[in-house]
Amino acid sequence: MTTISGVASTISITGMGDNFSAQQTVTEVNAGLSLIELHITANDGQARPAPRIQISWSLPMHDIYSLWHSGSDRNKNIPADWSHGNIAKVTSQMPVVSFYSYHGENRLTAAFSDALEAVEIKAGVSEETGELHCSLNLFVESSPELADYMATLRLDTRAIPYYTALDNVQRWWAEQPGYEPAPVPEPARLPMYSTWYSFHQQLEPAAIEAQCRIAKELGCEAVIVDDGWQTINNERGYAYCGDWEVATEKIPDMKAHVARVHELGMKYVLWYSVPFVGQYSKAWSRFNDRMLYTIERLGAGVLDPRYPEVREYLIQLYEKALVEWDLDGFKLDFVDAFRAEPRFPQPPLSSTSQVSTAEERDEQSIDRAVDRLLTDIMVRLRAIKPDILIEFRQSYVGPLMRKYGNMFRAGDCPYEFITNRVRTLDIRLLCGQTAAHADMLMWHPDEPAEIVAQQLINVLFSVPQISVLLDKLPATHLEVVRYWLAFWRQHRDVLLDGTLMPAHPEVLYPMVSATNEDKYLIVSYQDNIITLPDSIPEELIVINGSLEQRLVLEVTADSGSRQMHIRDCRGQSIQQAELTLNPGLHMLNVPASGTVTLQKH
């Protein structure tokens, strides 16, 4: 057991049993930041099933206001220590928690180096002592064979902004061997059009191309063609997945269709449900003894990636599609379904089926097999097209997923722009340069223009995806979309690449700022008093992300005279004047979903 600076108790490791031993080596990087290297070995040196190992520590509940973790979504509460923890592994969530003060200052950010095997992270308050009890439970979903295991627990109690502590964690992960993030091509960082909410499975080439033509003019650079291209069944199930052949009744010539989209100047990304094999596919009979489980309501089974035949089948599907149809990328969906699932049955075997044996597998761990599959997919696709686009959806957006993909999209939240804001910011905090994408934006055609603008304003700090029938929108909606996509492009240097500072996660990030050398951009999503920094760059942009008709600025240091320009949600000029930013409160009449730019003379 080892005492760590800033932690009230020792770091203890339990659960080794009689067959394993554990050692700890502590490195204090600087005051408040420690790395605890764990070395677990089998006593006889022979590989054997890993036990359920627990690493635990505690610290006083002093000036801790809330908790952030990658799966907290709209609930950032601090649980009791008897509550269940959160499980993170290769295809789900991230092994990190961050506790912070009212002012967003880090109190404890704990991260684990092993993002492959399932680990349960528990952190909660003790009713008896008022302490924060924390633990990591290793190998909670499987017991991989191991003789020697090394991992590092990173504990950060420095008084720095919580978002800085999290950014340091993502950088630390990215430096680990085998965790190097995939390159991010420029198209991954530009707005896209998606067919999912606008078409669902009812796809027609001419209709898609018509939307692409408008989307390109509005500022989109790629189309993501979602579920439906592979089946004539439109019931939104997965019974026909697995063969991944084009439903020619819908798309008679996929290659020609892709070529026509390319002629419009747009990239083409195609959806695949990676693990699912439907009961009406030809692949069902081939792989029905190589599945992890079946889901009756979906009419599909989940392939077992521990078999090399399964992995090679999937990789060759994507290689073939990439070459034959000249695709630019893939939306690889449902990879979190690769797991042991006792709730669902194994698929029934036909009388002619031969039961696969464990000896035919070249991996015994599902998570390691998934890592091998997704790694090989990226390597082989990039060998054909180095700038390949790969999208993954929340919650499979962890540190290892950055190695396999370059676009992370917020989990589905149709219309719900507040949730979209929370989820995109949660991704941004730990995805580094990997492109964070909003869930596809959709709305009713009778919405007021200000509400349409809210869809875009709430995801400004991510890459927008649009998924409405653009030719059915009223002219005012098209004005809103055109203006905000142009605004986003103009200020992408600060929105995506500036220093991101999201305030108060516990109340859904009511104010978010980003800055670089030339710009300071603030979005206020509620009727807040917006405190400006003492030193303001050449350009200050404040966005009214609420439906109020005003913004209130608090100036703490004399910032001189600025040229002010106020615009409404469609970008139309409302007022131009000179504003002297002397200390005190300044109330500005800014329309709902409007902007004010304050430029130095």
Short descriptors:
601 residues, alpha+beta, TIM Barrel, Immunoglobulin-like, 3 domains, 8-stranded parallel β-sheet, 22% helix, 30% strand, hydrolase, Aldolase_TIM
What is the class of the largest domain in the CATH system? Alpha Beta
Largest sheet: 8 strands, parallel
Counted by DSSP, the helix tally is 12
The amount of helix comes to 10-25%
Name the shape in a single word: flat
The stretches of 5 or more residues where confidence is low (pLDDT under 50) are 350-354
Protein name: Alpha-galactosidase
Keywords: Glycosidase, Hydrolase
GO molecular function, one term: alpha-galactosidase activity
InterPro entries: Aldolase_TIM (IPR013785), Alpha-glycosidase_related (IPR050985), GH (IPR017853), Glyco_hydro_36 (IPR002252)
Fold and architecture overview:
- The protein is of the alpha+beta class.
- The chain folds into three domains: 165 residues, no CATH class; 224 residues, TIM Barrel (Alpha-Beta Barrel); 100 residues, Immunoglobulin-like.
- It is 22% helix and 30% strand.
- It has twelve helices and 35 strands.
- The protein has an eight-stranded parallel beta sheet. The protein has a seven-stranded mixed beta sheet with strand order 26-27-28-30-35-32-33, with helices on one face. Strands 1-2-6-12-11-8 form a six-stranded antiparallel beta sheet, with no helix packed on it.
- Helix 6 packs parallel to helix 7 and helix 10 packs parallel to helix 11.
